[in-house]
Amino acid sequence: MNKKLIALAVASALAAPMTAQAEMSVYGKAHVWFGMWNTKDAAGTQQKQNWQLDSAPGASRLGFKGNVDMENGMKAVYQVEEEVDFTDGGQFSGARNSFLGLKGGFGDLIIGTYDSPLKMAQGDFDQFNDTPGDLKFAGIAAAGSEFGKGQDGENRNKNTVMYMGKSGSLGFNVAVYPGESATGTENVGFMDAYSAAVTFKADALYVAAAMDSHIHTSAQAANSMTRLVGTYDLGAMELGLLYQNGVEKAASSTDANENWLGLSFGMKMGGGKVKAQYIQTGDSATTKTNTTQTSLGYEAKMDKKIGWYVMYTSDTASDASKAASTFTGGGLTASF
Q1: Confidence of residue 21 (pLDDT cuts 50, 70, 90)
Q2: Radius of gyration of the chain (CA)
Q3: What are 176-234's pLDDT values in tens digits?
Q4: In this structure, are residues 102 and 75 in contact, taking their beta carbons and an 8 Å threshold?
Q5: For residue 258, what pLDDT is reported?
Q6: Closest Cα partner for 153 from 225, 57, 229, 220?
Q7: Distance CA 70, CA 37 (A)
Q8: Distance CA 14, CA 9 (A)
Q9: 237 contact partners, CB below 8 Å, separation of at least 6
C-alpha cells in the first residue's frame, strides 16, 4: 500500500473528531491457517506432503472507511482496504475492495476496485469462504500448485463503475469496466465488460441470478458467464445450491463450455457449526475432464470476534493426468 495513502488515512482519522459530519473507522481481520497439503503433479505420479503456516489466501486485511454528510442529504463514502500476508514478512499483498462513491435514497454509486456483482451473488453459499476450501479454488490445480485453478466468476475487478440499489426484497447490482487498452492500438469501449445481478431476500430465503460478459479484445477472448444461487437459512441448518455456466467464444475453433454445480450445508452443533460443501465442474474439451472439490469442517467462536476451525478439502479430477490435492488442517480468525 502506498505510504502516502496510509499517512493520509491516518491524518483523516485524527481530524475526524473535529468535523461533526464526517465519520471514519479503522478495521481489520487476522486469519492464520496451518495444515498439510498432499499434492500430485500434472503427470499423476509425483506426490508430496507440504506443511504450511500461512495467512494467504485467508484474506487477512487492514482497512479505513468512512463517510461525509453532504448538504443535499447524500453521503460521500470511501474505503481503502489492503490484504495483509503477515506470516511471510508482514507485507501488503494486494488491494481489496477500495473505492470512492455517493450514497443516497437512490442507492450507492461507486468507482474503484470491487467484487463483481456476479461474485457477490453467491451470498452466504460458500461455507468455506477465505479458507483452502473456498469456492474460488474449485477446479483442476496447476502443476505443482496446491490450490485449484479457481472459479472464473470469483473476480474482484479494477476500473469498476458500479451501481447498487434496493427496492423492498429485491436488490440490483450493475458494474461496467472501461477497457483501458494497454497497447493504445485497439478500440475499447465503456461497456466492453460488464457484470449484473438481481437478488431476492425474504426471511430465510435468498435467491440470485447474475451474468458477466466480456467482448473480444486482443488481450482476451469473448466470454460470458451465468450464475444462479439459492440459500435457505433454517436457523439451526443452512442449505445452499449453486449452478454456473461459462462460454468462451473462440475465433477459429469450437466454443469452450464449462458447467459448475455446487451444494453447501451447515448445521449448528456443540456450540459451533458442522459444515460440508461439494463443487463439481465439467468442460466441453475433446478429452472431457470432470473435477470435484469436497470439503468438510467444524467452526466455533471463542469470543464474539475470535474463532477457530478445523477442516479437510480435496480437489480431484476424472482425468488421472491432471493435478490433484488434499488439505487437512485448521485456522484462527480475529476481527477488529
Answers
A1: low
A2: 21
A3: 988 654 455 455 666 678 899 999 999 999 999 999 887 655 445 557 889 999 999 99
A4: yes
A5: 82
A6: 225
A7: 52
A8: 9
A9: 265, 266, 267, 268
Q: What is the DSSP string of 68-129?
A: EE-TTS-EEEEEEEEEEEGGGTSEEEEE-SEEEEEEETTEEEEEEEEE-HHHHTTTT--TTT
Phi-psi region of 89 (alpha: psi -120 to 50; beta: other; left: phi over 0): left
Site of grid cell 430465503: 205
Structure-block grid coordinates of residue 66: 468512512
Percent helix, strand, coil in the chain, to 5, is 10, 60, 30
CATH class of 3-16+25-335: mainly beta
Tell me the three-class secondary structure of 54-67, residue by residue: ECCCCCCEEEEEEE
List CB contacts of 253: < 8 A, sequence separation 6 or more: none
Phi-psi region of 184 (alpha: psi -120 to 50; beta: other; left: phi over 0): left
Q: Which residue has the cell 500476508?
A: 85
Residues 90-127 pLDDT 10s: 677 788 999 999 999 999 999 999 999 999 999 999 99
DSSP state at residue 263: E
- Phi-psi category of residue 11: left, alpha or beta, with phi > 0 → left and psi -120 to 50 → alpha: alpha
